[in-house]
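TA notes, week 10

Several of you asked for a full example with nothing omitted. So below is the full record: structure tokens for the whole chain, then the designed sequence directly under it. When grading your own attempts, check the secondary structure regions first.
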């Protein structure tokens, strides 16, 4: 097994050198630095995540023109779609995740509209399999899940109007509470539903704690952990607003809110160990969610009793 691993590493190194040499020969001067940075960020080496220097170089293409940013996103997506190597695929996904978190508005915008059709299976990796070794087979399950997770991040970003855990959205988040105050109940429910759906996707992450020490999976876990804390904060803001509106909710809204709160509660057991930071924040969410679910269930029961009583009176008066 050790010899096979070393052989695979050598083959991967040769492929990386060949790809970089080919890019040097066929790329035009305007795109050469882009393609070289991409190839160096997404090597076949499974022992290390993308080097920050190359991630920074790729992100810099989002500070130029929209055309340049679109070219960077297209090159990254082409690399992701053409590879059958789990390490390359994971590094491409990590790079996409960095665009979501640290990219400029221009490159984030290009990511959000690629491809123009959008839709489910956005990254088209649900059938990804790397059967080269037992390790790559396990990493393949992380590729499939991580792609679904990023798809959900992009979907949630469209619903909320800003990229989750994004540095570029900090100024927008400062206005978040004020914006939430102005939302209609239906829009507020839609945003909470999407954010809770993101937590549910995190709960679906693959088993294999022995892989947590592997640098690629460890990098994924760290980045998703940051998103998790950001999502919890966003859910808390919205639940706090709904807590103020409980007495004014329609019966339909209270039923829908109760369903979302139940889904949130189901996440607690599977997700609490993801991050040891900001325990007070996470505990605040679980406590508020549980408290609100009890209130909503009582409100539903009261309104159901009222509806039954009203129906009984109407039937009695018609006799």
């Amino acid at each position: 097994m050790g010899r096979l691993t070393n052989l695979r590493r050598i083959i991967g190194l040769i492929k990386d050198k060949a790809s970089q040499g080919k890019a040097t020969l066929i790329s035009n001067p305007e795109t050469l630095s882009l393609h070289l940075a991409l190839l160096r960020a997404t090597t076949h080496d499974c022992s290390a995540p993308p080097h920050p220097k190359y991630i920074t170089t790729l992100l810099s293409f989002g500070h130029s023109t929209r055309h340049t940013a679109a070219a960077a996103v297209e090159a990254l997506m082409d690399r992701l779609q053409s590879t059958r190597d789990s390490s390359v695929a994971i590094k491409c996904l990590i790079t996409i995740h960095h665009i979501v978190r640290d990219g400029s508005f221009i490159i984030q915008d290009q990511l959000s509209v690629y491809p123009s059709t959008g839709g489910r299976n956005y990254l088209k990796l649900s059938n990804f399999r790397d059967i080269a070794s037992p390790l790559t087979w396990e990493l393949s399950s992380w590729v499939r899940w991580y792609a679904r997770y990023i798809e959900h991040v992009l979907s949630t970003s469209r619903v909320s109007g800003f990229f989750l855990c994004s540095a570029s959205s900090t100024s927008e988040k400062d206005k978040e509470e004020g914006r939430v105050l102005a939302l209609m109940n239906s829009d507020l429910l839609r945003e909470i539903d999407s954010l809770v759906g993101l937590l549910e996707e995190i709960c679906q992450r693959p088993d294999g704690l022995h892989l947590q020490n592997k640098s690629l999976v460890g990098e994924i876990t760290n980045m998703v952990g940051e998103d998790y804390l950001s999502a919890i904060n966003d859910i808390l803001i919205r639940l706090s607003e709904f807590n103020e509106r409980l007495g004014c909710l329609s019966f339909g809204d209270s039923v829908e809110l109760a369903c979302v709160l139940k889904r949130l509660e189901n996440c607690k057991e599977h997700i609490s160990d993801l991050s040891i930071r900001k325990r007070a924040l996470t505990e605040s969410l679980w406590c508020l969610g549980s408290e609100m679910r009890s209130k909503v269930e009582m409100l539903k029961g009261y309104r159901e009793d009222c509806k039954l009583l009203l129906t009984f009176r109407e039937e009695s008066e018609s006799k």
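The CA atoms of residues 62 and 107 lie 5 Å apart. Use that as a sanity check on your answer.
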